[in-house]
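Team,

Forwarding the record for the chain on the shared tracking sheet. I've put the sequence and predicted structure together so nobody has to dig through attachments.
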Amino acid sequence: MHYHMVNNRLSNYDPAILVLAAVGGTLVYTKVVRLYRKSEDPLFKRLGAYVFSILRKLPQVREKIEKELSVEKPKLIESIHKDDKDKQFIAIFL
C-alpha cells in the first residue's frame, strides 16, 4: 500500500532529478555528520562557522571584511603593544 503511494508520487519527477536529489542529500547528510563528530562545540555553532567560512570567500563579503579590518588593525596592534617599549614583538612577528 505505502509502496504504491510513494511510487505514484515519485513517478511525476524526472529520474535524473531524483538521482541528483539523492546524491545531493547524501552529500549534505555526510557533511553534517562529519561536522557533528568533529568536535564538542554545538552543531549549530559549527554549521554557522562553516557557512560563514564559505560566505567570506565571496568577493563582496571579502571586500567588506578587509575594509573593516584595515580600520581596526592599527588600533589592535597599538592596544596590544602599548607597553612594549622596544617593539621587539612587532619586529619579529609582523
